[in-house]
Each structure stands twice: as structure tokens, then as C-alpha cells.
Amino acid sequence: MGSSEFEQAKAHLHVDCAQPPAITWQRKFDDEGKKVAMLSMTTDIFTVIPLIFKMLRLHVEGIAKNQVAVYDPLRKWMDNCYRGVPLGGLGSGSIGRSYRGYFQQFQIFPRIYEEKPVLANQFSAFVSHPGGKSYSTVLKLVCCYFCQARLFDAQNDEG
């Protein structure tokens, strides 16, 4: 029974490459096709205006209620990939380094970036799991004083 169904399907699937299929999409060579309707910029602006007004209204209401919004549409947004490495999930902050390698840029609270040297040039990261162990790690700049001393000795040996 299975082989007869296979033979019937095989007969229906036979394709003669010399003949085009009976049902095809046909178009003349000189046909330029359907013209794409381009939206004008004014149409785009009119469709976005209600969204802009709603966003600004909600922002002003939040300021009136003394609520801090996560996104401020009136402030220049300065988030980019150079702000630092994230410290976990969304909203948990980030640590960044200066061009010299010091821990200098960090963000613990949303929208508040601090760019000042960290005392002793180190961060302590605490990781705690619910019902599990807590781990603590000190992130610090390994300012290889040993390497600097060797470089200083090598320069003095040459001279």
C-alpha cells in the first residue's frame, strides 16, 4: 500500500525540463512593473505627531509627580558602547575605563554616569544567588609595577 502511494506521488512530481510549467507568472520584457508609492516626509510626520505629543505629555506628567523617567526625550542621550561593561542585567549599571586604563567611568543608577577616579582604582563586585552562596571579586587595574621596574632597569643597563 505504501509503495503504490509513492508511485502515484512520483508520477505527479515528474517535471519535464524542456517544457515550461502550465501555470507560470508571465511578464513582458519591456514591462517596468508596478510603481512603488513613495510616502512623502509630510505624511510620515503627520503619522508620528500623535506619538510625540503623547510621549511629551507623559514626560511632563512624570516630572509633575516627581517621578524620574528612565528615558528623557529632552536630554541628549549619551549611551554608547564606550560607556563600559554591564554589571549584570538591565539597569544594573556598568564599569568603564579611561584611556589610560583606570576605572574612572561608572554607572550604578540609571541615567547617572560618574566620571571620576575610583579610590585605590578598584571596584568590588558582589554576586549573590537566591538561596545560594555569595561571591565577592575585586576588579582592579593590574598596574604592573614589576614590569615598570624591569623596564626602568633595562633602560639603565643600556646607558
Question: What is the succession of H and E elements?
Answer: HHEEEEEEH
- Quickly count the helices: 3
Separation of termini? 95 Å
Question: What share of residues is helical?
Answer: 25-40%
Structural class designation: alpha+beta
Low-confidence stretches: 146-159
GO molecular function: beta-glucosidase activity
InterPro entries: GH116_N, Non-lysos_glucosylceramidase
Protein name: Glycosyl-hydrolase family 116 N-terminal domain-containing protein
Domain Glycosyl-hydrolase family 116 N-terminal: 84-140
Question: Which secondary structure elements does this structure contain, and how are they paired or packed?
Answer:
Blueprint: H1 2-12, H2 41-64, E1 85-86, E2 94-97, E3 103-107, E4 114-115, E5 122-128, E6 134-140, H3 145-158
Antiparallel strand pairs: 1-2, 2-3, 3-4, 5-6
Structure description:
With 159 residues, this protein is an alpha+beta fold. Among the domains are: 40-77; 81-146, no CATH class. The protein is built from three helices and six strands; from the N terminus they run ααββββββα. The protein has helices at 2-12, 41-64, 145-158; strands at 85-86, 94-97, 103-107, 114-115, 122-128, 134-140. The strands form two sheets. Strands 1-2-3-4 form a four-stranded antiparallel beta sheet, with no helix packed on it. A two-stranded antiparallel sheet has the order 5-6. A hairpin with a 7-residue loop joins strand 1 (85-86) and strand 2. The radius of gyration is 33 Å and the shape is extended.
